[in-house]
Design goal:
Layout lengths: L8 H13 L2 H10 L4 H53 L5 E2 L7 E6 L4 E5 L15 E4 L4 E12 L6 E8 L1 H49 L17 H50 L3 H34 L6 E4 H12 L5 E6 L3 E5 L1 H18 L3 E9 L4 E8 L33 H11 L3 E5 L5 E11 L8 E3 L1
Parallel strand pairs: 1-3, 8-10
Antiparallel strand pairs: 2-3, 2-6, 4-5, 5-6, 7-9, 8-14, 9-13, 10-11, 11-13, 12-13
Helix pairs in contact: 3-4, 5-6, 6-9, 7-8, 8-9
Length: 486
């Protein structure tokens, strides 16, 4: 009696197999079994590719050889059958037919199925049954042979007869087996050779990568002077090592700048703090109220300097962390300059402006105002009589050009980049001796760079000019010039 639940078993098994395939545990096990090494994956891929190619080539060789050998055997059997047919057409055949080389047996039957003639090994045997058999038990030889049988019907004086000639495929089968075994062995050797060569070649190729990885892993935050080894070749690994060393150069330079900045900041803070402490201690113990008032006034000045220095340090830290995620507001640069000058009030030196209207930039008004303020502070500290602020649009580059010039002693060409470094002191008349923090020009250059511009010292016949170039959007109104004295 059939089990009614039996037809549902295959579907249940399929559902269970699907659940197993989707199982996270099975996926995790598969991931664990998957090779993680590039060397192993490359070797496996090379071996699989070579094995597939060798398998296809070996199969093609064996099939072609089999077809050729079978064709040769069949041709020999057909030629034997034609020889017997010619003899039968000429007259009665002998009861025992001789075998030519390549033929295994011969049997001739008439239309009634009676054996007319046969080879010695089939003498006295009944007629072979039809049905396309190609394997016969030849008792004379004592075993069974794989044979190709050719059947030919021809007319004789006694009526039509059917001639069957069998040719042994033993030699062909033996050759095919030997060839298959030889190809299998050769393929195994080739796959093993490819695996060994690929493993060694991949290991040799990845050795510099491992050396780079080990060196990078050994480099600490206080050992940035080390570099990864660069191979002498010009391949991808050499370019990778060169790129890693360039990155390490940048990291080392950044670390040096950071340590120098911290040391300079500590030094700059230590001096005013020491002076401030001394003034407060003297004011606290001095009996003269006038001297005490002078000491307190000096302490307030040092406090202002400390406050300015702290503000500049915070701004530099903010600029360093902001990167290029800043400004997006469109500003009239001439109006911004006027607003900054009005907010400063009367200064110690005369300020002359030459501003071209209609020059718009995209930026942060607070930061651009700080850029201009820092340049003006620097110019006023070193100018003898006058500071000049010029704004124009460069038609060749489409950039806004903002110049802040003074008629002071100027900056030697060799020192023009050094003045933009943080806490830089010069040995000439433009040294920081009038209350500056030593960070203003560095902050100004960082702000210009953040807005996609540049800040540099340009040549001038007398004094010094700090030129800022910013990407501009000129207004359609015609540009004009304005001059005024402050």
């Amino acid at each position: 009696m059939a089990d009614p639940a039996r037809p549902g078993i295959p579907a249940a098994l399929r559902r269970r197999a699907d659940r197993l395939r989707r199982s996270p545990r099975l996926a995790t096990a598969t991931e664990r079994l998957a090779p993680r090494s590039v060397r192993t994956r490359t070797t496996i891929a090379a071996c699989v590719a070579v094995a597939v190619v060798l398998l296809a080539a070996s199969a093609a060789v064996v099939l072609l050889m089999r077809a050729n050998l079978h064709r040769t055997v069949e041709t020999a059997a057909r030629e034997q059958a034609r020889t017997v047919a010619r003899s039968a057409a000429e007259g009665p055949l002998p009861h025992v037919l001789p075998l030519d080389p390549g033929a295994d047996f011969i049997q001739v039957t008439d239309t009634s199925g009676a054996v007319v003639a046969a080879s010695q090994n089939l003498a006295g045997r009944p007629a072979l049954a039809d049905g396309g058999h190609d394997s016969f038990d030849l008792g004379v030889l004592g075993d069974e042979h794989h044979q190709r049988v050719t059947t030919l019907t021809t007319a004789t004086p006694d009526g039509p007869v059917t001639i069957r000639v069998g040719a042994s495929l033993h030699t062909a089968d033996t050759a095919e087996d030997l060839t298959t075994a030889a190809l299998a062995g050769l393929s195994a050797v080739l796959v093993a050779t490819v695996g060994v060569v690929t493993w060694r070649a991949t290991g040799r190729a990845l050795r510099p990568v491992e050396a780079i990885r080990a060196e990078v892993a050994a480099i600490g935050d206080r050992d940035l002077a080390r570099r990864v080894p660069e191979p002498g070749s010009e391949d991808e690994i050499a370019r990778l090592a060169h790129t890693m060393n360039a990155m390490l150069d940048r990291l080392e330079a950044a670390g040096v700048r950071q340590r120098r900045f911290i040391a300079d900041a500590s030094h700059e803070l230590r001096s005013p703090l020491a002076v401030l402490r001394t003034q407060l201690e003297v004011a606290h113990t001095h009996p003269d109220p006038v001297v005490r008032a002078d000491m307190v006034a000096g302490a307030l000045q040092d406090t202002d300097r400390l406050q300015s220095l702290a503000a500049d340090l915070l701004l530099l830290a903010r600029l360093d962390t902001t990167g290029h995620n800043g400004p997006a507001e469109e500003l009239d640069l001439a109006e911004l300059v006027r607003t900054c000058l009005e907010g400063r009030g009367p200064g110690r030196k005369e300020v002359v402006t030459e501003l071209a209207d209609g020059v718009a930039v995209t930026g942060n008004p607070m930061w651009l105002g700080r850029l201009l303020t820092n340049l003006l502070d620097n110019a006023e500290r070193h100018a003898r009589h006058r500071v000049t602020v010029r704004l124009a649009l460069d038609p060749a580059t489409g950039r806004a050009v903002l110049d802040v010039a003074d008629d002071g002693p100027g900056v030697p060409p060799a020192e023009r980049e050094k003045v933009f470094e943080r806490f830089t002191r010069l040995d000439d008349a433009r040294s920081r001796d009038e209350g500056g923090t030593g960070l203003g020009l560095s902050i100004a250059r960082d702000i210009a760079a953040l807005h996609g511009g540049t800040l540099a010292i340009e040549d001038t016949p007398a004094g010094c000019v700090f030129r800022t170039r910013l990407p501009a959007r000129p207004h359609p109104t015609a540009a004009g010039a304005e001059g005024s004295g402050r």
